[in-house]
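Sample intake — Thiol:disulfide interchange protein
Collected from: Bdellovibrio bacteriovorus
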Amino acid sequence: MLRLVSVFALVFMTFQVSFASETLKGPHIQIDWLAPQIFAENSETVIGIRFRPDPHWHVYWKNPGDSGSAPKFQIKSKNAEVGEILWPYPARLPIAHLTNFGYEGDVAYLLKVKTGMAASLKMEVNLEWLVCQEECVPGFGVLSLSRDIKGTETVFAKEIQSKLNSFENKIPSAGLDSPYRLAVSELPEGGLKVFVSSKANLPSEVDLFPVDPEYVQPAQPKITKTDSGFEVAFQKSATAQKPASLGFLLVADKKAYKFSGLQIGALTATTEPVSFAVLAVILGSALLGGMLLNLMPCVFPVISIKAVSLLKNENAQERRKDGWLYAAGVLTTFAGLGAGFLILRSLGASVGWGFQLQSPLVVFGLIVLFWMMALNFLGVFEFGTAIMNSTGRIRWQGSFATGVLSVFIAAPCTGPFMGTALGATATMPGWQAMLVFIFLGMGLALPYLALTLSQKLAQKMPKPGAWMETVKQFFAFPLFATVLWLLWVLGLQTGSQGWLATGAALLILSFALWLGHGRKSLWKVIAWILAISALTYSGKQVQTAEASAEVSSNSAWTSYDENKLQSALQSGQPVFIDFTAAWCITCQVNKKAVLETATADEIFKKGNILRMRADWTKQDPAITAALSKLGRNSVPVYAFYSGKDAKTRLLPQILTIDMIHDLIPLKEEK
């Protein structure tokens, strides 16, 4: 065990320092300069502060590891500009059960010095350090440097220059300029894995040092060489908060490279292809799930109006063309969403189905779109072949646009059969994951496409008549209801500022439509200016607004917390987790119809079941990681843990009260 000798009386008795000296001496260490005899005018020179600990003693890197402390430098200079300290790459120093990062033997902490035309420069460095073996001794002092500045050549003593060059070779280069690339992911069992790949030949071995002193444990990681690079498995802290990004120092072939800003993915370690039989089941689920999306509240009015509009056209060839264009719009958009998902996954981001609705600006755009569609359905305005009009007329551009719109507004919905299919995309290779998205698109497009291609189905449709306009107007009201729901979602994401700005935008847009309707060009220009100004201003307000409080929930439910979950399981208490989001319609139906009923409340209380709610309305890396552990990347997900060491049971996405009843026998059997 390390014994920190911090009794200052002892330090002062044993620690003799010449303050403001070019050399410092203390117990078990000597400190001096690696500097030139003369600095050139208008030059930049690398110099070093050399620490020379006794044999088997060491000093520390900027991340000292499990214990210890990095040196501290406070630099004052005259007639020179001094850069930040440059840290050579360290070594791991195991001491008992601890692992430190530092240097055993001589090390120089480097810095760049820029000179001008002055005759001389002076520097003073206030130093604090810790030198350790099994015990540690702190030290402090002032290291000074005074040199002439003249001529065009910086003059080093040959020995000093040689030692300085050796330490300069250990300073890390920028990772982006290296042939190596790093990707970081959290593993389901709780570890952290870094994938090292190279555009050039792979080195024989690599080592990694975490820059973050809290989140990644410094112990020697398990390093596995693969055909494509290296997999480096770290343990992470169980208590430290997950940072927004991580930094690592990669050492390969005795050279070091610094990587920063690495996003932490929530993926499994590898993406292995699934067998043909498993892939067929997943694609079948995706196809069926896509077909059921047509019955979801947002999609159904748009598809229905599109289907009714076919009755206006008796030309079978045009109907078929309309169906194929609609399907093309659906498949293109699903492919685009799939590609975006895979790109973000490859960059280490944690995303899932409906991730775009975690952006308040996207929700704002949908609110405006649905509002305009509803007004169009009511006949308040006509807008040529644009997207508003495209939902009710045969236009080739409109048919494709309706397909695009149908996919985008389907994002809040995760119906039956979709959860398993979407969850599998997180671990599949890119081509298999893309097939899942394509089959989802095929399922969504198939019913409407069948209607346009089948003459028998077309003949069973009602005859055209005045009733069609009535039906179109009727479907405006579900769209208005969708606007109210999305305003509620936006309020949860941004607080009152967001929905107030959006409501003002809808009011001004409606006024602009009235102002420009049937009037001369000048009034139409004014209407356009009003509409664009309202959208721009309100969009900025929504983008910058923040919710004043977290999403509220029933008091019987507690917010998701991994530590609370593990604590409950260790004590043997069963846990039920509701992974939900305000923009998820299925989630809200299950909540009101089952989870927050008096019957369900009685069941949960009887079973002493801890209820946790993981709200994914806004992006939350902890919830994304928890979903990934369950093999899911969409909501709703309902997970039940029956007690200590029990396996997790995932409930269906459409809940019934009988399913909640069944949780009690599971708990009693345990």
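Post-analysis note: The chain has 21 helices and 27 strands.
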